[in-house]
Amino acid sequence: MKIVYILTRSDEIGGAQIHVRDLAQAMRKEGHEPLVVVGGNGPLLSQLRERGVRCISISSLKRPIAPFQDSKAFVALYRILRVENPDLVSLHSSKAGLLGRLAAKLGGVPAVFTAHGWAFTEGVGVLRRRVYTLLERLAALWAAKIITVSEYDYQLALRSGVGDIQKLKVIHNGMPDLPEQYRARPETTPCRLIMVARFSAQKDHASLFKALHDLADVRWTLELIGGGPDFPIAQESVATLGLQERVEFTGEVYDVPARLAGSSLFVLISKWEGLPRSIIEAMRAGLPVVASDVGGVRELVEDGVTGYLIPSGDVSLLRQRLQQLIEFPSLRQEMGLAGRRRFEKHFQFEAMFQKTLAIYEEVLDQTLQK
After folding, report:
1. How does DSSP assign 152-197, residue by residue?
2. To 5 degrees, how large is the angle CA 97–CA 101–CA 103?
3. Where in the chain is the domain with CATH 3.40.50.2000?
4. 43-50 vs 15-29: helix axis angle to the nearest 10?
5. How many helices (H) and strands (E) does the chain have?
6. What's the CATH superfamily of 180-346?
7. What is the Cβ-side half-sphere exposure of residue 205, based on CA atoms within 13 angstroms?
8. Is the peptide bond before 190 cis (omega within 30 degrees of 0)?
9. Topology of 2-176+348-369 in CATH?
10. Which of 178, 163, 204 is nearest to 312 (CA)?
11. How many of the other CB atoms lie within 10 Å of CB of 71?
12. 3-state SS string over 17-81?
């Protein structure tokens, strides 16, 4: 099977990038021919090449809406599909999903779109939700199948008129396991919290800082991994609250598994989410998780068993739950072990890969029958 993967950005290694990288690598090992087409010239390209995966960069494919650049990106995608003549196109992220589905439709190539969290999800602005709902309703017509990574996003799509039960399919994210050396010891004290997330409007670092500010008499440190437009705002907030000695801004790094292994507690405080791969990474490492109860997060975190779910914006409950876990190492250990078992049972990469491959084969069979 010759398959072209298309996604918008290569300058960050987020959930969609890791998903495509690992899928393409697995497809290659299975004897298929994957090609990854991506915007920009970031670190994702070098990671793909190291794994023997062909890749093409399109400089005009960018996240912000820019009609001239978007038109150039569309033409480039259409030309690539004409030259490569793939059996299937697999699309990831909103911009690549829209342009790529149209290019595939015009090129006569069946397309599968994977929604890593809808752009019209609850929590984003009203105008944005309306615009993206209309765009996704239209683009759904150009896809043979739509994969959602959570039941939450599946139900949201149905309620919003994006696709139907014949076209939509839920496949939870899965990740390859790692050696024992990447397992955390969450009972270790003092408690070392860690959050892996971009500094953007989606994430709610401000609520986390407020909660921790009220726990100044408890021993803890916090490591923040990630970059993004709100990075300076977060640094200023930490300074204003007098938390500089406790909060470490690591920035963009590529040794996240090792850093998780050296941590005691994972936190992800957000305004909206799809199905965060960072939480799966944390469970894989054996860490308890405290996360905002948004999007598909409750499909990952079992409240009171593998960690705690916090209503978005509830700083008081967040503070209580953090204090509880910081002060009781044995509880961190118990929840971390439960999270590890949940990862092993539900979120292994091989299961996700086989389900995804089955979708690809179903689409190709339907195409041949037409």
Report:
1. HHHHHHHHHTSS-TTTEEE----B----GGG---TT-SSEEEEEE-
2. 120
3. 2-176+348-369, 180-346
4. 20
5. 13, 13
6. Glycogen Phosphorylase B; (3.40.50.2000)
7. 28
8. yes
9. Rossmann fold (3.40.50)
10. 204
11. 12
12. HHHHHHHHHHHHHCCCEEEEEEECCCHHHHHHHHCCCEEEEECCCCCCCCHHHHHHHHHHHHHHH
d(CA 351, CA 336): 22
- The tokens describing 315, both together, are 């700083």
Q: Write down the pTM of the prediction.
A: 0.91
Residue 351 phi/psi, 5-degree rounding, is -65, -45
Per-residue pLDDT, 125:
82
Buried b (16+ CB within 10 A) or exposed e, 44-59: bbebbeebebebebbe
Give tens-digit pLDDT for 248-287: 999 989 899 999 999 999 999 999 998 999 999 999 999 9
DSSP letter for each residue of 311-369: -TT-HHHHHHHHHHHHH-HHHHHHHHHHHHHHHHHH-BHHHHHHHHHHHHHHHHHHHHH
Residue 224 φ then ψ, to 5°: -115, 115
